[in-house]
User: What shape does this take?
Amino acid sequence: MKILMVCLGNICRSPLAEGILQHKAKAAGLLWEVDSAGTSNYHIGEPPHRLSQKVALQHGIDISHQKGRQFTARDIQSFDKIFVMDTSNYADVQRMAGKYWDASKVDLLLNAIHPQSQQNVPDPWYGNEDGYHQVFNLISEACDCIIAKAQQGQH
Ligand code: 4NP
Assistant: This one.
């Protein structure tokens, strides 16, 4: 199973999602490959935001090695499942995928908790540290649901 986490900058939310799902999948004995990307080119090659790194580390997850990259249309083919953080990411991925678009592979991350609720993981970029803790908890809950569903054979 290859899973891609996508946000706008690939420095705040999706690096957390990559680290959290990798960590939980490994703990559950699942051999999943997890990666992340941004729809924008703003932060290519950069490490995750220092507050994403800090909050992850407080939960025993080291994401400092990650490097920002931009989503490409080919990611639709390369990955089995692509989780986006918000509805704007969804629209961008759909547009950038072009002829490779496959709606069955792409979903909002929080739909893993509340199917079809279309809820966004809020962008913590303009806020303070509290926002990063809130985002960590939301993503963590969604990843628990993804793993629970996989273990129940619902994938
Ligand atoms: P992310 O947050 O999409 O969760 O990585 C953002 C990071 C950077 C910017 C916007 C959102 N930016 O405008 O540079």
Notes: The domain at 2-151 is CATH 3.40.50.2300 (Rossmann fold).
